[in-house]
Amino acid sequence: MVARADAARSRAAILRAAAELVADRSGELRLSAVARAAGVGQGTLYRHFPTQEDLLRALYTGEIDELVAEATTLVAAHPPPEALRRWFDRLAAYARVKLGVVAAVEDSVWTDLHAQTPGKLGAALTTLLTAGSADESLRADVDPRDVVLLSWFLAHVEDAEWDERVPRLLDVLVAGLRA
């Protein structure tokens, strides 16, 4: 069991390090830099992720799965408008990682990853919007696709203006979704 626990810790450390390096977007993601940042040897990294694409695919998929799972958690803990706003904060963090992943992977890998996203995000948004519609705090005439389209601005915000602009735009988005 110790070996499996060590392997799980190594995998998690590798993914955390990769997320930080991808979010930095200062250049090409090097697996040697990921291993160093994670505090593991290159052999350990390659056992978990034989290629850069494997690592980026796991990073992207993990981020989107966490984002989807968080919708249910947030709805259970907060009123729907607040849950939605908190989820949008996570979406913005995810978008930053996603932009780094897009810059780092080949088009064929990105096409495969991108195909998974709309259905997963739609499920999370359905959870959030349904809760808001049920208590009449969010508009009932908006569907998940509307919200995905409205949130595309995240892909176009420059790094230099991210911290100032994104919170304000998310506030505008949530205000527009209130009933």
CATH topology of the largest domain: Tetracycline Repressor, domain 2
Number of domains: 2
What is the averaged pLDDT score? 87
Question: How many DSSP H or I helices?
Answer: 8
Largest sheet: none
Structural class: mainly alpha
Strand content: under 5%
Q: What is the radius of gyration?
A: 18 Å
Quaternary state of this entry equals single chain
Coarse morphology: elongated
pLDDT < 50 stretches: none
**CATH architectural grouping of the largest domain:** Orthogonal Bundle
By CATH, the superfamily of the largest domain comes out as: Tetracycline Repressor, domain 2
The end-to-end span amounts to 52 Å
Helix fraction by DSSP (H/I, runs of at least 4): over 70%
H/E element string?
HHHHHHHH
Beta-strand segment tally:
0
Q: What's the CATH class of the largest domain, please?
A: Mainly Alpha
